[in-house]
Specification:
With 185 residues, the protein is α/β, with parallel strands linked by helices. Helices cover 45% and strands 14% of the residues. The protein has nine helices and six strands. The strands form two sheets. Strands 1-2-3 form a three-stranded mixed beta sheet. α5 links the parallel β1 and β2. α1 packs across α3 and α8 packs across α9.
């Protein structure tokens, strides 16, 4: 379980009985256990259940060069397997904006993140239905979207690979409905 991305670990835990879930979670390190339990607390089929919780975050005063130093200094296990952006947050972990990697690479090493971040980034509430998040991806051709809690604090990220299953499930249900078949049957 420790080797899985957080969204995949949650999907696997969802398939287990509550006693089995508890047994697996109890065997995990405290930090990972807390993250997975928090994800399992979100409603089923919500963005909070689909999101990945391993993120790259930085304060707005960090420079592009400091972010690259962070990448080099950080153990690879503490970075996402793949990511597209650095999330800029305030001390309260509220999302201020994002810096896409292409903008980061092109920036001078002395440029502060708050000068190159996008502040109007679309975001999804953790309690929002996964199908709504999927529509957002389809409508705006997104590859990722930050997930925030009710207080606009960053809690995770949805990437296109997280949402593809939801889109395929929706399409299957629509095809079945066109054929007059109830998707629950």
């Amino acid at each position: 379980m420790r080797d899985l991305e957080s969204d995949d670990a949650v999907a696997l835990l969802e398939t287990l009985e509550p006693e089995e879930q508890a047994e697996v979670l109890d065997a995990m390190p405290a930090q990972e256990r807390i993250v997975l339990r928090r994800s399992l607390d979100y409603p089923e089929d919500s963005a909070g259940r689909l999101m990945q919780t391993t993120l790259v975050i930085a304060p707005p005063f960090w420079t592009a060069g400091r972010v690259f130093d962070y990448f080099r200094e950080t153990d690879a296990q503490n970075l996402p397997d793949s990511f597209f952006e650095v999330f800029v947050v305030d001390p309260g972990h509220h999302l201020l904006g994002t810096v896409f990697l292409d903008a980061l690479v092109r920036a001078e090493t002395t440029t502060p993140l708050d000068k190159i971040m996008e502040t109007d980034r679309r975001r999804v509430k953790a309690t929002e239905d996964g199908a709504e998040a999927a529509r957002l991806f389809e409508r705006y051709n997104l590859v990722s979207v930050p997930v925030v809690d009710e207080d606009d604090r960053l809690v995770g990220v949805l990437t296109i690979d997280d949402i593809v299953d939801v889109i395929q499930e929706q399409a299957s249900e629509e095809i079945l409905a066109l054929g007059g078949v109830n998707p629950d049957e």
